[in-house]
Automatic annotation (TrEMBL):
Protein name, UniProt field: peptidyl-tRNA hydrolase
Pfam families linked: PTH2
Species: Acanthoscelides obtectus
A GO CC term assigned to this protein in UniProt: cytosol
Lineage: Eukaryota, Metazoa, Ecdysozoa, Arthropoda, Hexapoda
Homology family: Belongs to the PTH2 family.
Record field: transmembrane: 6-28
Enzyme Commission (EC) number: 3.1.1.29
Keyword hit for Cell membrane: no
UniProt keyword terms in alphabetical order: Hydrolase, Membrane, Transmembrane, Transmembrane helix
InterPro entries for this protein: Pep_tRNA_hydro_II_dom_sf, PTH2
Length: 169
């Protein structure tokens, strides 16, 4: 078995490394390149607004009686928005309309769990998506406490029938 001289070994090693690096560069560069035409069309479409009275939004009703701190409220609203989005994925036209208006979210206050459950009942009557968030109870509220309800996304005119009487949070 003959040994390859060190200069030959270095040349073969360098060529292999160079070919590998070049291949990786081209594969990664073109594999993840965005289709700019699709992206541009999607952005233009997203900001073409229809009739303003048909605006779509998501309402998050927050229980004021729990006396949650701001950070806790923000976390619970985040959970509510994600839950609402997940449900809206099953209704693509609805989701597209809501996103077309910038994914508007409005926070309102409610005073009790009973009021939260009544909002859920009204939403179901009008065939509007709703998601009730229950807290794990590891910080400020009791485990399983219903903290926030997300209602929508839906047309503002429909949401006003359910939550129009509520004050902003």
């Amino acid at each position: 078995m003959a040994l390859i001289p060190s200069t030959s070994y270095f040349a073969i090693f360098s060529a292999g490394t160079l070919i590998g690096a070049a291949s990786a560069y081209f594969i990664l560069r073109f594999r993840h390149a965005p289709n700019t035409e699709i992206w541009k069309n999607g952005m233009e479409e997203r900001y073409e607004f229809d009739d303003p009275k048909d605006e779509y939004r998501l309402i998050m009703a927050i229980r004021n009686d729990l006396k949650m701190q701001k950070g806790k409220v923000a976390a619970q609203c985040g959970h509510a928005a994600v839950a609402a989005y997940a449900k809206a994925l099953n209704r693509p036209k609805l989701l597209k309309r809501w996103l077309k208006y910038g994914g508007t979210k409005v926070a309102v206050r409610i005073d009790s769990e009973a009021e939260l459950l009544e909002l859920d009942k009204e939403a179901k009557k009008l065939n509007v998506l709703s998601s009730i968030i229950r807290d794990a109870g590891q910080t400020q509220v009791a485990p399983g406490s219903r903290t926030v309800i997300a209602i929508g996304p839906a047309a503002k005119s429909i949401l006003d029938k359910i939550t129009g009487h509520l004050k902003l949070y």
